[in-house]
Amino acid sequence: MKAGLAREMKANRVRPARPKVAPAPYKAASSRYVLKLYVAGQSPRSVSAIANIKKLCEAKLHGRYVLDVIDLYQQPHMAQGEQIIAVPTLIRTSPSPSRRVIGDLSNTERVLAGLDIRSAA
Q1: Does domain 33-120 correspond to CATH entry 3.20.20.70?
Q2: 108-115 and 44-60 helices cross at what angle (nearest 10)?
Q3: Pairing mode, if any, of strands 65-71 and 33-39?
Q4: Is 0.70 topped by the overall pTM?
Q5: Which of 33, 47, 78, 105 sits a CA distance of 20 to 30 A from 54?
């Protein structure tokens, strides 16, 4: 008899209402971009990639970006953590999802499309 009563009480239990949570605000397109450029020393391709991305960032993301240039000759262990297989490689780590572009970054339209920055500029 006790088991039946316990089941009946459990079935009739009133659960407290869950509080309503407001949805997270949508991040504006003006959020900060975090970019990492992996290069190999002072090779012509590396120097060109650095100059190209700095020019592109100043033109399209002025004041809304952080650019880290990582020389794999000085820090070879950094290639393994990011799975770098070719240089120069540019990685957008923020905003998510991350995006990659490989090459000297001279084709501005390709870089903007590859990093999905076109809509933010």
Answers
A1: no
A2: 70
A3: parallel
A4: yes
A5: 78
